[in-house]
Amino acid sequence: MSLFKDVLNLWRSDDLLSQAWNESYKMLQLSREMFIQSVTMLRKQSKEKTLIALKKRDREINEFQRDIRRKVMTHLVLQEDSTDIPNGLVLVNIVVDIERLGDYCKNILDLAISTPKTFKTEKVSEDLKIIEDEVITRFDQTMEALHSQDSEVAQELITTHRKMVAKTSDKLVDKILKGKITFNSESKAVTVAIYARYLK
Prior knowledge:
The chain is an all-alpha fold. It folds into two domains: about 1-115, Methane Monooxygenase Hydroxylase, Chain G, domain 1 (Up-down Bundle); about 120-200. It has eight helices and no strands. It has helices at about 5-10, 15-45, 50-55, 60-80, 85-115, 125-150, 150-175, 185-200. Helix 3 packs antiparallel against helix 5 (about 85-115), helix 4 (about 60-80) packs antiparallel against helix 5 (about 85-115) and helix 6 runs antiparallel to helix 7. The longest helix is centred in the middle third of the chain and has 30 residues, at about 85-115.
């Protein structure tokens, strides 16, 4: 059985490690929700008060991470053998990555706060939309892979990230830096390039 499936089997037990795993799933759901709202608010010029309120939800993600790490470490200390150590360490790495997603959402919200007008990107809107949609799809596929214990889908998501997300972002940023795509102001060019990086 793969390590991925070993970790998923924690759902079948009712100990601190399984509780931590369930919380990591909720943490991923919250990150997905924050990402979708962040992108929407950037494009629709929401009120600063609304943007700041959403930014504060990152605290929930941070709290999830602290609680999950605490439960994992407590479980491993109390275990009489070392069989759960690999699963516990994998789970800790997963929540670190999910917490990083929350940070990127905060960064997108900071862009929205700093952008005085509606974030319009006609020249690259299609490229950005492709990346945004791909990220949301990958959120959904990741959550489904966890539920169905599908290690093949999980591995596919990892191996195709470069091609489906990172490469598109890199090409867009490269065109902006080389002047192949121009905007009506330098600040707009910088904002678009930074946003493309955050999506990566």
